[in-house]
Design brief:
By secondary structure, the protein is mostly helical. 57% of the residues lie in helices and 5% in strands.
Length: 278
């Protein structure tokens, strides 16, 4: 009997040792796995993600990177693009809920999208945006420092509003409408969105007088891809005091107001040329 107890005891010890070995092996494998796992950080907390899932995510991201992307919104976090109404600016002529902009405002935004679409493929790319800027720069009226600042601001504006400078990054008409809606409801973005307007003025102010005449305004429209007849008509409308010139302050105000107001009586509706038909 004593011999049987000894055998049972030895068997129990062997089983315990085997269990310990299995657990130890699993623990080592788990720890090794964790050692080779990249930490995932969300800005507040960092954690370790399963390696298999990591590899799947990497493969999925690689696949997505090869697709033609039409969304510009990855350039800004979602919460910055869709602020709560309590954080939105409430100008009397721009305030709206949701996407209930008037068809008049939508026509104006489609007009600008068409102007920025330099190659006329129906999409605005960074290359289009840069070519648009180069038209003004090529007039030769900006000094070297102003020209550098202008291009830098064009790049910053693109990145803030539409994301990465990427050959596969495009803005469709509807995306442009949606994005401009969010820009106008975001105080900080609204202030910075059209900071390139003064450079357009300086680029066409040929005599550097601080004012632009109808002749110089025609240069502005030529850079927009519009003809002189449209420029003459638009200038006659926006030159409300009839002095035959537009100051830098007036130019910038009209340019910004075009994007902000939904009031069809405002003369700023002529600033970017005739509105395109729906």
């Amino acid at each position: 009997m004593a011999f049987s107890f000894i055998r049972l005891g030895l068997r129990s010890v062997a089983l315990n040792l085997e269990r310990a070995a299995i657990l130890s092996t699993a623990s080592v494998q788990s720890n090794m796995k964790l050692i080779h796992t990249q930490p995932i950080c969300n800005g507040t907390v960092c954690y370790l993600q399963d390696k298999v899932r990591d590899n799947h995510d990497v493969a999925e991201r690689s696949s997505n990177s090869l697709r033609r992307c039409y969304s510009k919104q990855h350039g800004r976090p979602e919460e910055l693009r869709r602020k709560k109404e309590s954080d939105s600016e409430s100008d009397s002529d721009t305030e709206c809920k949701g996407f209930d902009r008037t068809e008049f405002w939508r026509r104006k935004m489609r007009t600008v999208h068409n102007i920025l679409d330099v190659d006329k493929d129906g999409l605005v790319s960074f290359n289009d945006f840069l070519l648009f800027a180069e038209r003004f720069k090529a007039l030769g009226h900006l000094d070297d420092e102003q020209a550098r600042e202008f291009i830098d601001i064009i790049k910053m504006t693109w990145e803030e509003q539409w994301g990465a400078i990427d050959p596969y990054n495009f803005v469709t008409v509807e995306q442009y409408l949606e994005d401009m809606h969010h820009v106008l409801n975001d105080k900080s973005l609204k202030k910075r969105a059209h900071r390139w307007l003064p450079y357009l003025f300086k680029a066409v102010d040929k005599d550097k007088s601080g004012y632009i005449s109808v002749k110089e305004f025609k240069l502005f429209f030529q850079c927009l891809g519009l003809d002189n007849e449209h420029a003459a008509v638009a200038f006659a409308v926006i030159d409300t005091n009839g002095d035959g010139k537009v100051s830098l302050k007036e130019f910038v105000k009209l340019g910004k107001e075009f994007f902000c107001t939904e009031d069809e009586t405002k003369v700023s509706k002529m600033f970017w040329g005739p509105l395109i038909d729906v």
